[in-house]
Amino acid sequence: MRIDGSSALVTGAGSGLGEATARMLAGLGAIVHVFDRNAEAASKIAGEIGGVALAGDVTSEADATAALDTAARAGDGLRILVNCAGIGVSARLLGRDGPMPLANYETVIRVNLIGTFNMMRLAAARMVETAEREDKGRGVIVNTASVAAFEGQVGQVAYAASKGGIVAMALPAARELARFGIRVNTVAPGIFLTPLLYNLPKEAQDSLASAIPYPSRLGDPAEFADTVRYLVENQYVNGEVIRLDGAIRMQPR
């Protein structure tokens, strides 16, 4: 899919992996819609990259519909969706205070998995309305999972389940949307230097990095964005899940 001139929407684009992706797409000439529940962050990033700020919740049909309708009116219609919005909550299935509250599990699943599905289904409905391009393609969807989908650690039952669901959606979604010329791929990042880790002491960051075989450092969000670019531009990659983790395999703890 050609990025230059394409209308793109990135969820969770107010910071971290989403921000890096929004910057990459804007730098390559896309009309970028910065969608984030933090309106101030969305406005800041959109202002810096010449994009469009959209505040909203990925789990809300109304918010998602409004955002995607805006993106669909730009350029020759919505062409690119990158789902980066998500939360990471650590809680044991059975902790010191008893079983994990069901509401905690439901919240993680709702934001990470249902939010991704919500954006994907509504974006696909708009992509099918676009005209075929010269390569017969209409759109590209890139979702964000995690290596926790494969090696969830203690305390990651809910998070791993949500990311495992995103991994599981890649192939059936790609197969279903293939007849419309819409591709679906997923990135499963390892340990990246996102705002969640910025606040950790340098010693803690170095400890995390030491577990990564090569390169032994935390991932740069720009490297995630480069992978998204590859998945958007390479037409033959479809229904795939790419681990982006420096060959790490997470230990139980």
TrEMBL record:
Keywords: Oxidoreductase. Signal peptide: none annotated. SUPFAM superfamilies: NAD(P)-binding Rossmann-fold domains. InterPro entries: NAD(P)-bd_dom_sf, Sc_DH/Rdtase_CS, SDR_fam. GO terms for molecular function: oxidoreductase activity. Coiled coil: none annotated. Belongs to the short-chain dehydrogenases/reductases (SDR) family. This is SDR family NAD(P)-dependent oxidoreductase. It comes from Oryzicola mucosus. The lineage of its organism: Bacteria, Pseudomonadati, Pseudomonadota, Alphaproteobacteria, Hyphomicrobiales.
